[in-house]
């Protein structure tokens, strides 16, 4: 047995936040901790190792040795030698001024191992990185999100630990990268005979990788079983609701609302950016990054168009160009047959409102909710008659008026995203632009946001442009789906046609990775 817990409880100050968790993880096995945000998953996996402010009680045995109650001086070398950690946000987990080589050497030396250059090359090849020699000389900001996550995995396994603790390692990745990283972790665990404690709210990834799963709700174990049994036949109401809230490609397609006249017509949109200066670039080399290439789309009243694609495909750049929040190098945007100027007027901006990916970061930390949600009215509306007040806007998104006096730090992720939607609704827009608006949320919170959006769409006839990397979510919500690859909108058709008869290799691969 690699790692065992008996009556494991976690407290902060005088509050007990996790209660009596029990599990065993054998070599080569993967145990997943799942549940909604705030259920105690991260506290359960990190507190016994003294990596957060939680204080653990009960028993946690690592290779037969009790680690709860050990001093940091004794625990530190055990943790460095026998355990590897992969954290949720790879960009913040990496030090920006250190090369990848320095990161790997530091991770290895903490376990008392001095790696050779060949060792570093081997570990990068093991985690599936191309051109490993070049990668060793690069810095974190020069890598993609998927590459940074692979570096974090390499740092976690370079010293051959007995236990790997992975805290939400795939939550911020697109479908293809999520599948690749999930398979990589699964293979590494079995090849190295390593035990793994995996934290995730992505039940689809858990289903394909974990042997067993524990469902946590408000710090209590709601259900504990094999992963296959939980997914096929959950025994608790909480497990049933989590499974139902998670979009799946094989679920029945629900009825969609009828659509009206055409609102938006974007024609041949291109967005180019200048490359950063490089001293040794040849004169013949193109100095432009073609982020979006000749993309065209239409959106009608009451219609949802989902743009799906991998990281860096140009989805968000296209959405920002349409919203007037980013540059347009070429093309035209028409609103009800009238061309919109590049520099939008206040009236133009009120027509379409954005909702961003990170709900907390999109809200001013010093402003109260009641002030934030009506701020756009002061700048974008001339006619203030017949507008909804702050209390009414909160009710529209399912929040009580008591939230008017709260600050963003006092909101959960789902509550903060509801506030962001209420703020967008305050100027009576005709089109909402959602840029990964549910990707940072757990399944239940994301499902609630989707239900709110569908209710608002039915009530007000809102059009929605949804940017997402989750094809199953697009299938659940959208009338049409567009697929982007390398800046090109390679397909854009009604979802039934696109999913049953894809015409482009990128679409076929996206569907395969989402199953």
Mean pLDDT: 89
How many structural domains does the protein architecture include? 2
Radius of gyration: 24 Å
> What's the CATH architecture of the largest domain?
3-Layer(aba) Sandwich
User: Largest beta sheet, briefly?
Assistant: 6 strands, mixed
Helical content (DSSP H or I, runs of 4+): 25-40%
Instruction: Output the structural class.
Output: alpha/beta
**Helical run tally:** 20
Number of strands: 20
Please write the CATH class name of the largest domain: Alpha Beta
For CATH, the homologous superfamily of the largest domain is named as P-loop containing nucleotide triphosphate hydrolases
Report the portion of residues in β strands. 25-35%
Stated plainly, the CATH topology of the largest domain is called: Rossmann fold
Q: What are the salient characteristics of this protein?
A:
Rossmann fold; 20 helices; six-stranded mixed beta sheet; alpha/beta; 515 residues; 20 strands
Molecular structure report:
This protein has 515 residues and is α/β, with parallel strands linked by helices. It has two domains: 3-242, P-loop containing nucleotide triphosphate hydrolases (Rossmann fold), CATH 3.40.50.300; 302-325 and 344-514, Rossmann fold. The chain is built from 20 helices and 20 strands. The strands form four sheets. A six-stranded mixed sheet has the order 6-7-8-3-9-10. A six-stranded mixed sheet has the order 16-17-18-13-19-20, with helices on both faces. Helix 7 runs parallel beside helix 8 and helix 11 packs across helix 17. The protein is globular, with a radius of gyration of 24 Å. The chain starts with a strand and ends with a helix. The mean pLDDT is 89.
């Amino acid at each position: 047995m690699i790692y065992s817990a008996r009556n494991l409880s976690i407290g902060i100050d005088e509050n007990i936040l996790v209660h009596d968790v029990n599990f065993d993880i054998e070599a080569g096995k993967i145990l997943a901790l799942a549940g909604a945000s705030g259920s105690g998953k991260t506290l359960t996996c990190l507190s016994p190792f003294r990596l957060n402010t939680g204080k653990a009680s009960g028993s946690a045995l690592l290779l037969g040795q009790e680690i709860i109650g050990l001093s940091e001086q004794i625990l530190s070398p055990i943790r460095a030698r026998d355990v590897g950690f992969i954290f949720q946000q790879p960009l913040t987990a990496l030090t920006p001024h250190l090369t990848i080589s320095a990161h790997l050497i530091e991770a290895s030396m903490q376990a008392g191992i001095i790696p050779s250059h060949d060792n570093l090359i081997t570990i990068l090849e093991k985690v599936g990185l191309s051109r490993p020699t070049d990668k060793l000389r690069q810095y974190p900001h020069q890598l993609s999100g998927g590459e940074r996550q692979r570096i974090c995995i390499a740092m976690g396994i370079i010293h051959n630990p007995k236990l790997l603790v992975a805290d939400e390692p795939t939550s911020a990745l697109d479908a293809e990268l999520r599948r690749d990283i999930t398979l990589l972790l699964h293979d590494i665990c079995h090849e190295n005979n390593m035990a793994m404690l995996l934290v995730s709210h992505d039940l689809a990834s858990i289903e394909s990788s974990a042997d067993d799963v524990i469902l946590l709700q408000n710090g209590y174990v709601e259900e504990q079983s094999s992963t296959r049994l939980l997914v096929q036949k959950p025994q608790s109401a909480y497990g049933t609701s989590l499974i139902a809230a998670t979009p799946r490609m094989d679920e029945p397609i629900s009825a969609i609302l009828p659509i009206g006249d055409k609102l938006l017509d974007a024609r041949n949109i291109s967005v180019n950016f200048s490359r950063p200066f490089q001293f040794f670039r040849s004169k013949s080399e193109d100095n432009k990054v073609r982020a979006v290439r000749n993309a065209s789309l239409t959106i009608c009243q009451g219609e949802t168009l989902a743009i799906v694609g991998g990281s860096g495909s140009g989805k968000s750049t296209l959405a920002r160009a349409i919203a007037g929040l980013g540059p347009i190098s070429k093309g035209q945007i028409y609103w009800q047959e009238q061309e919109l100027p590049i520099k939008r007027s206040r009236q133009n901006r009120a027509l379409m409102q954005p909702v961003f990916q990170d709900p907390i970061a999109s809200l001013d930390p010093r402003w109260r909710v009641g002030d934030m949600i009506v701020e756009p009215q002061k700048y974008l509306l001339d006619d203030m008659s017949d507008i909804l007040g702050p209390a009414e806007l909160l009710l529209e998104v399912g929040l009580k008026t008591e939230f008017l006096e709260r600050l963003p730090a006092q909101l959960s992720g789902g509550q903060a995203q509801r506030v962001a939607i209420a703020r967008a609704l305050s100027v009576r827009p005709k089109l909402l632009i959602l840029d990964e608006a549910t990707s940072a949320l757990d399944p239940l919170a994301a499902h609630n946001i989707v239900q709110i959006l569908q209710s608002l769409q039915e009530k007000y006839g809102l059009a929605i442009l949804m940017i997402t990397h989750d094809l199953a979510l697009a299938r659940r919500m959208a009338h049409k789906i567009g697929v982007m690859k390398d800046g090109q909108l390679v397909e854009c058709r009604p979802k039934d046609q696109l999913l049953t008869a894809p015409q482009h290799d990128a679409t076929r691969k996206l569907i395969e990775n989402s199953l």
